[in-house]
Amino acid sequence: MTAPAGPSARTLAFVESPVQLLNVLEWAHVTGDRGAGTTVPEPRDGERPLRDGIPRQPKDRDPAPVRPAGAGLLVVVLAPHDPMTRGQLRRMAELAREQGHEVRWEEARGGAGAPVRTVGGLAGALRRAHRVVIGDPFSRYVQLLLTITPARELVVVDDGTATMEFVAQLARGERLVRWHRRGSRGARDIAFAPVSASARRRLTPNARRAVEVFTSMPVEPPPGVTVTPNDFAWTRATFGPPRLTRGTDLVGTSLVETGVVDPDRYLDAVAALTRTHGATRYFAHRRESTDKLRRIASRVGLEVVRPELPLELIARRGPIGRTVLSFPSTVVHTLPLALAGTGVTVAVCDIDPVWLTEGASPRAEGFLSEVTDTAPDVRRLPVMPMTAP
After folding, report:
1. What is the pLDDT of residues 30-63, one digit of tens each?
2. Which of 6, 61, 66, 316 is deepest in the core (most CB within 10 A)?
3. Neighbours of 166 (CB within 10 A)
4. Is the pLDDT reported for residue 141 higher than 60?
5. Distance from the Cα of residue 282 to its chain's centroid
């Protein structure tokens, strides 16, 4: 569809994680949705967004020319509480501004009245928007915002492997539930069910509304949903190629923090991978706990790196190991694309079912296997042999 001229042509993007914002930038690059050239500064809370470590575009190109108010892409950051995520989001916001996009930082979780203020402040822009881009269709915040907008175009960009589960649930007509959650619903889930159901209907295309999924994941879309491949063209054009080290790097996951994998089993697996493949660095997931990372550093002896940008950008600008090891996660799909042509090998170690916790979702084992099985450009590693914890 072609967006009408004037203020109603505004594209709104809602993001809650650094990876979502990265993929909004990738989508804008592919679709040609250029920025408006203006910014709205976010409030400072002691985490001043540093430009150090944020790579500039080649030759420090001039910013995009200012376009009329109401044109271009407005990125709304629904800020989370987690300090690591906030830090990466601030740095991604700087990159978005350098591309000429407008960024609006919302303290969407800053107290009991924050949701009401945030939704009220965004209602007008939502009603005028012709296109809405979202990074997490499972988010209650996003689902609530979707009930407000009459936008004729909805775009879902990757939030990692969760995109695979979202598309599958949409195709089956199921309620939207994250893959690692168990099936039972609490009182809050039941109370929110009408909003969630309304959001799911809005994410189903019809004669009045187009739905697009912009993804690097293997998905089988339901009828009417357009899938646009994300091959990280903007990342590859903007950063690198990286300098390669002689070592091997290991990528962390949040499978322990989400209650899927037993923490001691995970630590044993990291130690076994390190011994077998000579890993020297551990790139932490932004959600990994400080205590767990401390144990990895002290017990296994790995150098723990807490990236200030999504791993796809960190790896692309380097230095990065010639081999990158990972458990089943988003990066086994995204890193081969971001590092295409660099000579880096991405290898994935399967999750042994005995590593799963008693509280893990019944879908966890099958879903993690699917993540690995559908990754086309990785080397498969056997499950690590280890002693019982």
Report:
1. 988 754 443 334 444 433 333 333 333 333 333 3
2. 316
3. 26
4. yes
5. 19
